[in-house]
Design a protein that fits this description.
By secondary structure, the chain is an all-alpha fold. It folds into two domains: 13-254, no CATH class; 295-503. Helix content is 68%, strand content 0%. The longest helix is centred in the N-terminal third of the chain and has 34 residues, at 101-134. Keywords: Membrane, Transmembrane, Transmembrane helix. The chain crosses the membrane at residues 32-53, 65-83, 117-137, 149-167, 174-198, 235-253, 307-325, 331-352, 373-398, 404-426, 433-455, 475-494.
Amino acid sequence: MTADAPMTPLVGLTATLRAEFAVWRRSAVARLPLGGVAFGLADSAMFLATGSGKTWKDVLGYQNLWAMFVGPMLTVLLAVTAARIDRGARGGGTWYRPVPPAYRHLSRFTALGVRSLLLNVLGAGTPLLLLGLLSSAQRVPADRAAEAVLVPWISQLGLLALTLWLARRLHAGAALAAGFVWTVLGVVEAESAAWAVLPFTWLDRGALPVLGTHANGVALETHSALAGASPWPPALLGALLAIPFLLLPRLSLSGTRTAKHRTSVERPAFSPGATAILNTVTEPAPRPAPAQPRLLGAALGMLRGTALTWLCPGAVALVALWLSWHDPETSIQLFTLLILPIGTLVLGLTVWSVAAQGWRAVASRATGTTGPALALTAVTVAIAVAVSLITALLYLTAGIPAGHAWPLALTSATVGAMLTTLTLWLAIRTSQAVAAVVGIIGILFGVLVGGTSMQQTLWPLIPYSWANYLDLHRMSLTLPVSLAALALFTYGITHATRKAAEHS
């Protein structure tokens, strides 16, 4: 007679919390809050560039962009990044440990909530500190400064829980899109009379009286009821929104396997990128002398079936639809400041997300990493250039003079290629989260500078707005610098891919 094996004791909440904080140390999740510093420095520079004679109320008003959009979107990106890493690593073995699901979910939310707080401290606190040190008139009172940091963070906790829940069950892109829609709805309806029953407004409503602005950044009128409203009811409602997403039933991680699933034999799966490139170097050659692998064809095959097959035509179709409603001369900025920068960001992130899964296997073949990396870069740049040239042709057929069409084609193709390689290099060298943060911040400041009178003085500093400058004077600087940066980033990509293979 044999005794039953003793049951493994469940892991407690304290140990789960401690393990969760240790999991993300030195990861992309830990580095992502540094994006707040980048935004804070850029925001401070923009504030100083608009002139002197401002007060601390103006400093608070400049936090509107952070509280309304950048902060919430970086919080969404934080949750999506954590979910992607966890899914890619299959939970690092923790899915099979005797941890109560409620402890696991609460610990994950707590760890990310602390990093969201750090994100807001760095993003909102950096300009408050720097601008206050430069001028006593710009020194925000301590209580208002604390509210400018804490109110947005507390309001974002519900969005964090929602995004984390969605990212566990859906594709990362779908969760990111849902977070974007939630954020935009919050901005649009923040001042609605029905805000108390519209959960997405809780994200932004509390920050408005603290910053003294409307949701669009315009200063509140003195007699406005919102100016004297308390920020805490909507902020606390935003935090309480997290509770249902932490308590929802069946909140298990996607891909979690039980014992009965683990008994089946699984065949190893390779990503489309790995399969396409490996097929070019592993199949026996029909002739005695082995043929050179067709790396460009393999790179193209890798991207077949990805979201790029509809995103690229969709971007061109969006421009065509816009041109059917608007004058082409006055609508070029839609492409140069929004569609092109956003497209290059999505292109670079998508390409590496596909290629990264099998890059170690690619590096183990006779081709090494340099050839495949150059082929991958060439195909990615070719896509950006092709979309730029087709779009310029659309503007030409819509009626803009040829003298405007060729600068648009040349500038958008060159700047688009440079921005694409920048994103690809950042995604490989650091992480996709860091590349996304840099891209989002760059696009925002590109719109602010390129779409306003600030371009008169700040245009050389924001490469994300360079495609908008079609005069020969500025093109004489942006085009050579973009080409030099393109070569530099391509060189960096070849080295970064080798390191990525070594550490994968």
